[in-house]
Amino acid sequence: MKILVLGSGAREHAIILALLSEETEHEILAAPGNAGIAADVPVIALDANDPDAVANYAIDEGIELVVIGPEAPLIAGVADALRTRGIAVFGPGRAAAALEGSKSFAKRIMREAGVPTGGATQAHTLHEVEEALDSFGAPYVVKADGLAAGKGVLVTNDRDAALAHAAHWLEHGEVLIEEFLDGEEVSLFLVSDGHTVLPLSPAQDFKRLGTGDTGPNTGGMGAYSPLPWLPEGFVDEVISTVALPTVRQLASEDTPFIGLLYCGLIVTSRGIRVIEFNARFGDPETQVVLPRLVTPLSSLLFAAATGTLSELPRPEFALDVAVTVVIASENYPDTPVTGRPIGGLDAAARVPGVHIAHAATTRGPGGELLASGGRVLSVVGVGSTFTEARARAYKAVALIELEGAQFRHDIAAKVLD
Question: Which residues form the ATP-grasp domain (predicted)?
């Protein structure tokens, strides 16, 4: 199959590596890609957020399946343009992608579908924010309504900090003040063709920058899968109470959700609650879910894109454990220092059970590998136990050279405890 993967992060690199690992050989292209992706497949100069440009390229090059990685092309309507031209695409249309693009839209869908979630109040002014904060009480949860690259959510006991965060995002639109939910967070990906959903393996990510859940929120500093502490029947409960009701509600509104439904969940003392939805694979969870996938990824993506998911069995996963540690640039997530050389990758990749997904890398004038953004690399360790997978990942991290690099030392450590 000729497949075009849109995106330039570690998530897209993980998707491409999963496709390349299949017994069936595919012709894979990426746009715009990064230095690591370019070492594995051809990358093309194409604006992934331009619906017409992507659709025209797909037709001209005979692309059989387009896989949309990041949220921006979804919100831009790239999937709509492709479907209109008859091209199979894994990713929801703009209307359904509002499940991620608008927190208010997601809350309405959940309310009408009867999906369990926390209470929330929309606020358009600082006065409304203050009233909502006082109504819910501390800890305060403030969320930007639209896309914010993982930086729109603040959870704090500091009322002044909550107000300042709200004031910043009110300049871009409304904000949501939400009920604080206490418990373990879980990410569960479900593949959907608009009617049927099939689950992937649960994962847990680490959003705070520093070891011990300190520092600011980030796009994610690491993840692990599976989650041995989840109660039996967890995935089936999420399918019946969250995923299917959501997909059916969207279908009833003539906005079928075709693609990856990312359920950000929390296991509270009162049961499972939805924190948020995303409309695409999560990063860095994808980096630990896909290496454990036994079922060919291409078959899942193509069946979802073509409305034939009901013909497939539930995906199978290896018993192996996967742990990923994200290496970020100095001063991430504020104003990351870029352009610094990266060394030691060959030695790191030689550690047994380790592979590296590139997130923000580029080549310099002399071909040297440089950091080009905040989260630079995802170092993935796979092993038969958590101890083995963690040890492999951190051994490889120690071999990588990047001045000012930041990473957490406690990814998946609590599972060992």
Answer: 107-306
The answer as to CATH 3.40.50.1480 being correct for domain 321-416 is: no
Task: Quickly name the fold that domain 120-178 has.
Answer: Dna Ligase; domain 1 (3.30.1490)
Q: In the structure encoding, which two tokens stand for residue 56, read together?
A: 């025209």
DSSP type of residue 25 = -
- 182-311 fold: D-amino Acid Aminotransferase; Chain A, domain 1 (3.30.470)
The two three-digit tokens of residue 125, written as one number: 């002014």
CA angle 292, 212, 205 (to 5 degrees): 25
pLDDT tens figures, 295-330: 999 999 999 999 999 999 999 999 999 999 999 999
CATH for 2-94 (3.40.50.880, 3.90.960.10, 3.40.50.300, 3.40.50.20): 3.40.50.20
How far from the centroid of its chain's Cα atoms is residue 301's Cα? 16
Give the C-alpha distances (Å, rounded to integers) separating 398 from 52, 141, 169, 354, 402.
44, 36, 38, 13, 10
> Radius of gyration (Cα) for the chain, nearest Å?
20
Task: Specify whether the CB–CB gap between 188 and 265 falls below 8 A.
Answer: yes
Does position 63 have pLDDT exceeding 90, yes or no? yes
> Is the sign of the CA dihedral 67, 72, 73, 79 positive or negative?
positive
pLDDT over threshold 80, residue 146: no
Helix 244-252 with 94-101: angle, nearest 10 deg: 130
Q: Which residues contact 319 (CB under 8 A, 6 or more apart)?
A: 384
